[in-house]
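Supplementary Note 2. Why include the ligand at all?

Several targets in our set were suspected to adopt different conformations when bound, so apo predictions alone were not considered sufficient. For every target with a known small-molecule partner we therefore ran a joint prediction. The input for fe (ii) ion is given below.
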Amino acid sequence: MAANGTFRLAAVADLHCRQDQHGRFRELVKMVNGEADGLVLPGDLTDHGQIDEVKTLAEALGGLRVPCAAVLGNHDYEGGAVKEIVRILGEVKVIVLDGDHAIFDRQLGIAGVKGFGGGFDKAMLQAFGEPAIKAFVQEAVNESLKLEAALAQLDVDKKVVLMHYAPIAATVAGEEIQLRPFLGTSRLTAPLEAFEPIAVFHGHAHHGALEGRTPKGIPVYNVAMPLLRKLMEDRRFRVFEL
Ligand SMILES: [Fe+2]
Ligand SMILES: [Fe+2]
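The joint prediction is reproduced in token form.
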């Protein structure tokens, strides 16, 4: 923590680590150790949710000297090995959040969920008609309820939220318009507006926009690595002073 009480939080999503990428994230970990007091990873840690991929990533994250919290992304679910992924990351002290929270340095609370798609604002998918549509919408409702529960338990002044999917349309702007309903949903904004975290970090929209705000004005940051590299001079992560 800096002398003035601010917490320097590093954030990057969508690492998409592959099995053969030994060493790819070593430099990133070194830089985070030097520039930040903590690190958050909002999902798509691995490329296909494979055990060998998460082992490769854990090898690098084991070098962190600051606390680290993550949520999983859709890619991390692809291999059907979520429990094992969480366990392997836990071995190197990465806390994987799913409707719960972590506290860094006794001052910064982090609530996390994966989130889900379903579209934004007036174009948000409604639970109407076929069971498959209702099940799709229910997944987003469940994620929103999990986030609400996680935030309700956080008893610190400084709160941030991690999610993989986007809670607002603004940070997916730039993506193909047909794809946007699958990149997030406004259903995730209700708990944000109720509990007013100081910032929200997500990924998933590799070609979206860097920043936006909820209707109430809560800042939302898309920290997908491909986006940071494209729009922030090849940066691998962002550091936020909170
Ligand atoms: Fe991704
Ligand atoms: Fe994703």
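The chain has a mean pLDDT of 96. The pocket of fe (ii) ion (ligand 2) is lined by residues 44, 73-75, 164, 204 (CB under 6 Å). Comparable summaries for the other entries are listed in the accompanying table.
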